[in-house]
Design brief:
Strand order of the largest sheet: 3-2-1-4-5
Number of helices: 6
CATH class: Alpha Beta
Largest sheet: 5 strands, parallel
Order of helices and strands: EHHEHHEHHEE
Number of strands: 5
CATH architecture: 3-Layer(aba) Sandwich
Shape: globular
CATH superfamily: 5'-nuclease
Distance between the termini: 16 Å
CATH topology: Rossmann fold
Number of domains: 1
Structural class: alpha/beta
C-alpha cells in the first residue's frame, strides 16, 4: 500500500462537478484506498476554493468532513522550523521561475521528509525532480 499526500487540486476536482479534472478524479478515486495524508494548508485551500467557486456551503461541509474522516492529518505547524524550511524551498523554486506557491512548496517539503507520493493535478510539480507523483 502506498503512502500518499493529497493536494488540493485533486480534491477540488473530486468535489467540484464542473472542474475540468472532475471525471479524471472520480475515475481514479480508488487511489484514495491507500494510506492518504493531508495538511492544514490543503484543507484551507480546498474549503476556500469550494466556498468561493460554488457558493455551496453544503458541499464545503461535505468536503471538510470527508477530508477529516478519511485522511491522516499532518500537523505541519507543529514541526520544528516548518515555515523556515518551506520558505527556503519556496524561494529556491521561484528564483528558478517555477512559480510554485507556498502551499505547493510545503507539499514538496513534506513529501520529501515523510517519503510520500503526491496526488495532484497540478502540472507545476513536474518540474521538481525529487518528487514522486501519482497521476
Amino acid at each position: 500500500m502506498n503512502r500518499i499526500l493529497v493536494d488540493s487540486s485533486y480534491l477540488i476536482a473530486l468535489f467540484r462537478r464542473d472542474d475540468l479534472n472532475h471525471s479524471r478524479a472520480v475515475e481514479n478515486k480508488d487511489i484514495l484506498n491507500n494510506h492518504c495524508f493531508i495538511t492544514n494548508l490543503v484543507i484551507s485551500e480546498v474549503l476556500t476554493v469550494l466556498a468561493m467557486k460554488t457558493d455551496d456551503m453544503e458541499l464545503v461541509n461535505l468536503s471538510f468532513n470527508y477530508m477529516i474522516d478519511n485522511f491522516t492529518l499532518i500537523k505541519e505547524f507543529h514541526m520544528h522550523n516548518f515555515n523556515y524550511n518551506v520558505f527556503s524551498l519556496f524561494s529556491k523554486y521561484n528564483a528558478q521561475k517555477y512559480n510554485l506557491s507556498y502551499v505547493d512548496s510545503s507539499l514538496v517539503y513534506l513529501s520529501d521528509i515523510h517519503g510520500l507520493k503526491l496526488l495532484t493535478f497540478d502540472k507545476g510539480f513536474e518540474k521538481i525532480g525529487n518528487i514522486d507523483l501519482v497521476l
